[in-house]
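Researcher: Let's do a round of design. I'm pasting the structure tokens now; please hold your answer until I've finished.
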């Protein structure tokens, strides 16, 4: 993601914050993101320099004017005018990250050797929320190459509790 997209997302988030619409805007942005993901040719059309800018801006108006707040509509048009509409999806991800940070919501990537039970997931979330002093949403992955244990990545920190790492530590101690 480019710095300019981070700046655009931050500006939109700050504007939404001034109005108290952070969550509402996130919902609308995520709906538009889904539309673009489901219809990649539409995003290609809006990105195409062979289509006159007036037509691209008109297409945005036609598609979103009815259900989209003025500031989000202006945001879409700005990205289109600046040739950055292709980075819209990343800008929504950045906006969501800003919203989560403001509400102390963290995303954890949990990788384990085998699928966790709902009880295990619940206990893990509870522990993570205590350690982060906030709400934690988890994405779960299974990696059969892990011998056991799990790896948790949250807020840029990696907690490696895998058996592989523990065995590596034992090996390092033996080789000293």
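Researcher: That's everything. Go ahead.
Model: Designed sequence:
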């Amino acid at each position: 993601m480019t710095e300019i997209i981070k700046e655009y997302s931050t500006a939109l988030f700050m504007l939404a914050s001034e109005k108290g619409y952070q969550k509402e805007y996130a919902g609308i942005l995520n709906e538009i993101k889904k539309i673009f993901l489901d219809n990649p040719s539409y995003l290609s059309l809006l990105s195409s320099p062979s289509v006159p800018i007036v037509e691209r801006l008109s297409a945005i108006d036609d598609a979103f004017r009815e259900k989209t707040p003025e500031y989000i509509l202006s945001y879409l048009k700005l990205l289109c005018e600046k040739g950055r509409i292709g980075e819209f999806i990343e800008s929504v991800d950045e906006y969501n990250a800003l919203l989560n940070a403001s509400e102390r919501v963290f995303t954890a990537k949990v990788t384990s050797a085998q699928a966790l039970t709902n009880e295990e997931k619940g206990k893990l979330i509870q522990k993570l929320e205590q350690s982060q002093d906030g709400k934690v949403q988890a994405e779960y992955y299974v990696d059969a190459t892990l011998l056991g244990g799990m790896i948790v990545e949250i807020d840029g920190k990696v907690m490696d509790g895998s058996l592989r790492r523990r065995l590596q530590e034992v090996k390092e101690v033996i080789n000293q």
